[in-house]
Structure formats: structure tokens, C-alpha cells
Amino acid sequence: MFDYILAPLDGSKLSQSVIPYSVQIAKALHVPIVLLHVIESLPVYAQEGEQALDTAPERYGQEYRQAIDSTLTSGRAEHIRYLDLIIGREKAIAQRYLSLFANPIEAQNVKVESVVEIGKPAQEILRFAGQRRNGLIALSTHGRSGLVRLAMGSVADRLAHASSVPVLLIRPKEDEDEGKAIGSIVAPLDGSALSEGIMPAVQQLAMSLHIPVHLVRSVPISSEIWAGGETHSYVPAYLTSEVQTKVHADALRYLERMKATLEAEKIIADLSVLVGPADSRIVDYASEADDALIIMASHGRTGFNRWFLGSIAEKVIRSSGRPVLLVRPREE
How high is the mean pLDDT of the chain? Predict the structure, then answer.
């Protein structure tokens, strides 16, 4: 499922928190890591009275060609050489920066490829992942580089919503020099086929990392149960109790079936039915699990309690200190 790990780095210490996780997964899967640094913009300083050339990627090609034509005809080709010098210098700095991480990673018998691009970070990450399929993007949910002024928080948010490939989001802590190893997987399911789209990733990582899987499903409390597609201001206590018991039993049977599929692959698995708001219950459960990685579908829907897993996933990302792997299942 995963043929490589794409780890974007922006120059900040916080963005580097993805490296330990990337190395652990890459070693287990025997796949390379691609370190990507995006040079967000290259200011070109003009002489007094001239307009500076904006080398932002959406205009770079056209303006660069126009600059070549105008400067060559005006006898000022030195400006083009200066522009090339700036681009070359920035790329050289970025390559040296990436080599600081590539060398130690390669010493751990993991292949590394270093890539430098010029453009908008989110666009370049998505473009790379789109051209080179079967990857896993791993990045920090926030971080800022003084070098390129890259706010990784907004980039992570963009990728979480737009990426068609799985995205591993790490929320780093200031006092942590290195990320912890992944020790287990928490796999929330809502009963829909879309939510079950995470299972190939769950199986691959559990088998490769030799870690257990905790299957969980959240069910609403009695007062939130939907009956016949409509809510009722008053439902007799005996009825809510009966419905709650049935919902809980159905969830258990469902998780038992999913557990059996994992155990058929020799994967250690257990299950839990969580009662209450899905996002907070998942966050609480994962906080108690051993070095858990949460794997969730980026969207999904259950017909019974209208749990939109996409919105739940977003809340879990913002609230949990655990790494979250978002998988966008294929539409049926």
C-alpha cells in the first residue's frame, strides 16, 4: 500500500518531529523516505525605480521568460544571471539542510531521496504525491521556518482536506527532542464501508510494525439516539434503555467481525464500544493506549447516528496529542 514516505521539512525544529515516525515506518515497510523542502518564494531586488520581479510559482514561468526577453534586448542580461544565482543559492542551502537529516537516516539502513522544489508548500506536496503514487505524507501539524516563512499548520490543514493519499499528522511538543515509537494502533470505525477503508493500512502497519490493534466504535448516549430518523423531546426510560442495549450489542457484533479479519492475519486485536461523543471518546481512549497511532477515514457516514467521520477526524486531530493517520477511502 505504501511505497515511500514523503516527509516535508520547513526548516523548523517542530517540523522535524516527523522524522522518527517516518524512519520507524520506512524500516518496517522497507521503503525509502523522500525529504522534501519547498522554497516558498524568492525575492529579487531591483534597482531604484524598478519593479521587483516576483518569483512566486504561479507567475514565475511567464515573468521569467518576459525578463529574459526584455533584459537581453536591453543589454542587461546580468539581471538574469543574478536571478539564477539567487535560485541556485537557495537550492544549495536547502540541499545542505536536507543532508543534515538524510545522512543519519541512511545510517539506519533506510534509503533517502532529497528533493527541493520552488512553489507554494501545499501545492508542491500535493503535486509530488499525485505524480508519485502509493505514498504516505508525514508532516507536523504546525511549525514555522524563519528561512521560508512556512506555516506548517495551514499546510497540514490543506493536505488533510485535499490529499488523495494518506496523511500522517504529528503534533510535536516543544520539550520533545524526538518522537516516540508507535506501539499500537487505534482504529475507530462507524459501521460504514467508507470507514472500513482504513483496514488495509491498519493491517499493513500492524503486521509490519508487529503491534496490536484496538478497534473502537462510538455509540450515542440514550438522549442522542435517533429513532426513525427523527429526534424526540421525550422518550420513555425503558425504551431508551432497550435501544441503548441493542445499539451496544450491534456495535459489539460488528467489531467482533472486524476483529476476526485481523486475527486471520495473525494480528493481535481487541475491541471497545465507546459511549458518548465520538471525538472526545476516541481522544480519551487513545491517550490511555500504549504509544498509539490513530488511523481514521477522512470521511465516512453511518446511517444510524449520522456520524460524519470527516468532521470527527478533524476534531480528533485538533484535540489529540497522538499521531493521526488520515486515509481517504475510495468512493464506492
Answer: 79
List strands edge to edge, sheet with 135-140: 112-118, 33-39, 4-8, 135-140, 167-170, 324-327, 292-297, 184-188, 213-219, 269-275
Give the Cβ contact number of residue 96 at 10 Å.
10
Q: What SS3 state is found at 184?
A: strand
Helix (H, G, I), strand (E, B) or coil at 305: coil
DSSP state of 12: S
User: If DSSP codes are grouped into helix, strand and coil, which group holds residue 312?
Assistant: helix
Q: Which domains does the chain have, with CATH numbers?
A: 1-178 (3.40.50.620), 184-323 (3.40.50.620)
In angstroms, rounded to a whole number, what is the distance separating the alpha carbons of residues 270 and 258? 10
Helices in the chain by DSSP H: which ranges?
A: 18-29, 57-74, 78-106, 121-131, 152-162, 199-209, 237-263, 278-288, 309-319
- Provide the angle, in degrees to the nearest 10, between the axes of the packed helices 237-263 and 199-209: 50
What string of DSSP letters covers 143-183?
-B-TTT--BHHHHHHHHHHH-SS-EEEE---TT-SSPPPP-
Task: List Cβ neighbours of 181 (8 Å cut-off, separation of 6 or more).
Answer: 20, 24, 291
Specify the pTM.
0.78
CA distance 300 to 306: 9
Model confidence pLDDT, tens digit, residues 57-98: 444 445 445 554 555 455 555 665 666 777 788 888 899 999
Alpha carbon distance 196, 111 (integer Å): 31
In the 8-state DSSP scheme, what is residue 15? G
Q: Of the given ranges (88-97, 136-145, 284-293), which has the lowest mean pLDDT?
A: 136-145
How far apart (Å, rounded) are the C-alpha atoms in residues 219 and 225?
9
d(CA 83, CA 42): 9
Full DSSP string of 30-74: T--EEEEEEE---EEPPPTTSPPEE--HHHHHHHHHHHHHHHHHH
CA distance 196 to 332: 12
